[in-house]
Amino acid sequence: HSTLWGSDVTNSRGRQIERLISNNCLCLLNNDEKTYFHEPTRTFHSLDLAICSPTLLPLLHFTVGSDLCNSDHFPIIVSYADSGGAIQYPPRYLFQRADWGNFMQLADITESMVSTADITEAVQNVIDCLINAANNTIPKSSPRLRKFRRPWWNEACRDSRREEKKLWNIFRRYPTTENHVAFKRAKALARRIRRRSQRESWINFISSITSSTSSKQLWKKVKAANGIYCESSFPVLKAGNMTHSAPIDIANTLGHAFAQVSATDSYSPEFVAIKDRAERTPLRFTARSTLPYNSEFRMFELETALSRAHDTSPGPDGITYNMLRHLNTTSLSHLLFLFNRIWTEQKYPSQWHEATVIPILKPGKDPSNPLHYRPIALTSCLCKTFERMVNARLVFELEKQGCISPLQSGFRRGRSTFDNLVLLETQIRNAFVRRNHLVSIFFDIEKAYDRTWRYGILLTLFNFGFRGNLPIFLRNFLSHRTFRVRMGNFYSNHFIQTEGVPQGSVLSVTLFIIHLSQILNFLPSYVHGSLYVDDLQISCQGSNMNMIERQLQHAVNKLVAWCDKNGHTISAEKSRCVHFCRKRNIHLDPNIQIRNAPIPVVNDIRFLGVIFDRKLTFLPHILHLRKKCERSLNILKVLSRTSWGADRTSLLRIYQAVILSSMDYGCMVYGSARPTVLRRLDTIHHSALRICSGAFRTSPVESLYVICHQLPLHLRRQKISALYFFRAQSVPKHPISQLKFPAFLHRLYAARPSHILPFCERTKMLLHDSDLNNVSVQLSDFFTFPPWEIPQFSFLNPFSGFDKSSTAPVTFQQLFHHHRYQYSSFLPIFTDGSKSDGHVGCGVVSPSDTLSYRLHNSCSVFTAELVAIFCALQEISPSSQRNFIIYTDSMSALETLSHYDTQMHPVGLEILSILQFLRHKSFNIIFCWVPSHVGISGNETADAIAKFASAVLPRALPYVDIKKFFVSRLFSLWQQKWDLLTNNKLHSVKPSIGLWPILPIRQVDVKLSRLRIGHTRFTHKYLIFGERAPVCPTCHQNFTVHHILIECPSFKSHRVDHFHLSSVTLQDLVGEKHHPNIFNFLKTIGFFMSI
Hints:
The protein is α+β, with helices and mostly antiparallel strands and about 1100 residues long. It is built from 40 helices and 27 strands. The strands form nine sheets. Strands 9, 10, 12, 13 and 14 form a five-stranded mixed sheet that branches. The chain has a five-stranded mixed sheet with strand order 15-16-11-17-20, sandwiched between helices. α20 runs antiparallel to α22 and α38 packs antiparallel against α40. The longest helix is centred in the N-terminal third of the chain and has 31 residues, at about 175-205.
């Protein structure tokens, strides 16, 4: 038995088979389906296994039959995974073949198009213009059924294949030697072109892989490269007593089901009465005064919205973001004029009310049930671009006014699921050390998006004080929504979405959060809660279970009452309750009910991707994670056996994106598990590194880390935990940074050392010996400037036409003197930053004074340059002079300030903020770049005082500098541990940890890696088979890589012939730059094929 193939437990025989699969690089075809029925106990088990080599895995499909056939074993069906039936889809624009120059000319949005009296007509004019231009300049895919061809197949492959067939036919008719040679050459050329195309296609795909790329997407690509396409067919739906199999009937059935979910009839009669009574009172959003967020949109807002949009499927109008990005400046300005008309005239185009819905089956659900599909709405990209502009203003106002609860972490800048995970873990740890109970309830809100009360959203906005264009646009956006379901190339009838927000639009998440976040305001003070979009969790702790039960029941009643008044429904059946406790006494499970239905009590719960068990050992989570990663290792096994996807860089990138990212997620929480539990993940890490590097099975794990340049998992968890800790401190009002740790808890943890500390205290202990122990992190205010009023910054560069490397310093001095003559009325101030070993400083030089400060050692020279500019502006502030010119030799600092972004360096935000303040006070401040070290006196003085600055400037440190400094310290700690392993064979070759170049040919790179590590098949296979070590017949010493390459006198003459030296070292032969003749030498002595 093993959990790897679906058993509940793992026994010794299961572990033996696991090792067999891992050690021999085999792949398991089984999924979690049961294969055996034990009649005496009436239980099902997974006993029958299907194992194959990695090359076969993409080609096979594993299923288990449902009929026992008079046996106790179910039949196992292993079939060839041939491409299924194709579904016909609408034609798509082929943007890789677009003529964008011609498109920009044809897609000319004129003033007359957007100035018509009717807004809907103006929008239609823009749509027609863009679609006509696209149809004339961008080819479309064929509307015929899709052909199953390999993604790497291109015209070069086709032409070479045709030439090969042509010469083959000639040879068959005229079998001469000349024709045979021509055919063989054509065949070799075609094979070379195909392999090159495979390789290039795979490299392009690898470059697009991120941590959000799923293993399913990778498998799809791997199978496609082998010509296997997993095309899904139309599902057969069951609605009542009717069965639907025709595409149009399926689309209409799904559309009817989606419409029913959002219909008023789906609400309870009590809420319908509340809804009708409330909606009789119209919400008057008319603004009495001009509010800044209601001002007209500006061009930089449109450009920002387009730059942040990801390429997605088009809506009903067929417009894509690619088209909008390639509009000329005049067309963009007219499009902005149209958006401002919609904004100020408070009218909404009728085309934007419609959406095309794509049904996506929920994981693990029955495909025949229409309610098991998630409706993803494809809306107009024109509309979504405008939504993104509106959403930026809405979010800014919500965050600035503090309208959203700090306990809501969903889709907020600087926030993540980790916040809720860490908060829950901290509460549980503190309850354990106080020997208390903690009961937590995890709620399931049914159809939360589709049933959100629209009037309730608008009422919440009204109560927040929103008036004018913004809330009126949102009201128009939510009104009169319709949709059609698309199944392949078939569309359903039009359906009305009465309530809810469309899943897939830009504004939907923000509007949903606005409404649902209000639920946290109704929690009693003694109950803690957190929310990630609609994932609601509450908890209560204490020593008396009866008291906890009463308090939680009271909280649940208040939450249910709020939901009853706002149209939401909490499912008691799908909600879960967990009693966290380490006491050994028997306690009854808490009985908490929702409308007289008890909430099920479970021993563990999957919360935001991490499994919390009642004793917080995290063993269930790590076992689940190990099983998931074991299956994902099959991708690496398959790719390592191919000629096109097997280089170490590609394999490591896939490992980091698919497997390592899964182990990274939540590690700041589950990393508190006992070391014996955490070590279960180390085997996954080691197996993956062995596959990526091709290292022999007996290679030490420390060598695997160094050869692949991958941190050990425990150091990686420390890195992620510390960086999250600092990141939380950099976000204003972050709930983690505001956690209190009272003195009595300090004393309790000290008195009870067996209890594990909560996250923040664990991280502080981790940082105790570093220079970052007591540093303060500079806050990164993402909302310093409103999106409709970003700061303007520009600078002078009078030296732009001169190259510093080829221009004499005296030329720069003359240019500077001429420049000063032009700006003689401006008071000059020189700034500079300096960083050397153990010292970071900044300097400011003005005609009347000099300032120099020493900064923390973790600060970068870029930060020092920015701090110097900031200090200069602070010095300017009290001055009576109004004209200043600031000189700096940091072009990167000036360019950063001139490209404003909400994620820019926090000191840069400070500079822009104080600069805006000074300009409002009538200061005229100019910035100018000067070259360094060319004899410009002010710059030379600023550089000198920055290098020797001693006065410490008490400043908070930017997160980016802390991150870089901590990672470098962590790698230094790794290097120190590596320095102690002097007996490690790789250490003599690679004493310093670093990233070495790899060889493009997988087989050769594997052999080189094994030589460097010192473990090869010839020298170390005896450890696997329990044999004696191989002994050199000449020297009577054990065969080792060092002995064969360096010591053995039998090969001395060959060393001289190949290396032209009688004495060489391992670093000379297999170091970072390996000897070019090393492989010829190994072939000569007959060792090459035994590595």
